[in-house]
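Box 3.1 A note on notation
Throughout this textbook, protein chains are presented in two layers. The first layer is the amino acid sequence; the second is a token string describing backbone geometry. Keep the layers aligned when reading.
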Amino acid sequence: MKPSISVKPAWSATLGDWVGCAAWSPDGSTVAVGSLAGEAIVLDARTGAVTAKLAEHPLGVSCLAWSPAGLLGSGGHDGVVRLARVRSSEAPVTLASVPFGRWIAGLAWSPTDPLLAVAAGRSLCALDAEGAAVANWEDLPSTVTAVSWSVGGKVSTLGAACYGGVWWYRPQEPEAPPRHLAYKGSMLTLDVAPNGRWAASGCQDGSVHIWRLWSGDDLTMSGYPSKVEHVAFQDSSEWMAVGNGPEVTVWDFRGKGPGGRAPKVLSGHEGTITALAYQHRGPLLATGDDAGRILLWDPTKSKRPIQAGVSPMGGASLTWSPDDCSLLVGGAAGQVLCLQVAS
């Protein structure tokens, strides 16, 4: 029996171009979205009304990230990172505008410290909440394509993916040599399992490379038909989804991990998958493709999508609300659609 899921459009909005990034505020009351045209706006999560317009990023907004304390970081193809305080009852206040001179490829807030990781060209930087550089590492082997934090005990380490593997740094000890997890290839993504045991990177050569963070041991899942740009761990850390071509593969990380195990293959898309996202605490996986289909799955129970009547539109970005009750879809033609999801 398929799970009973209700999906209803809550509201929609329109930006001028491709909506490639979106981020919910920690309290779920607002959502920030950015477009390839450079618009960066904040919407009321209940109605979709525009509550604030932030300074634009000429050439396009590349990434958005909220801190646990509610600060919003935005990065753009203009090479600038901005920090803003955004509250629903007040006009946004820009706290800092930091020029890097290179395309901002990724932003990520530390879950334990008020630090924002910035990937800009071949450099990795950690900014504090006022925009001051706490640590800066230059001249990585190639352009940094993704950043992620890993928490061990009370200390967070910062990972940067690029050609040759992943380098892990400690902002508290910026002069300490990094830990290098090597791989002979170009890393395109970086995701860390919530339990801190695993790190996964999609690669240019059509593979996914996995490391056991406690030992550095690694393994490769190869054979994908094209470069792998979409990888995500489930909240339980027991499953990891990979989107490539029209199919989703879900790998089993229970026990000793995926080595020697065949993945579940989820088929239902007609076009190439452009986005995927797990719920924060629930089992549902959302996927979108360039043919305009958005599908919901519960891979722990079925290899078939849940037929939930989701309205077709291009899924350039997919983002779950903090309470997992709403899914925000950013479209390739500039649409923003909020879907209410209830089981």
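The chain has a mean pLDDT of 92. The longest strand covers residues 155-169.
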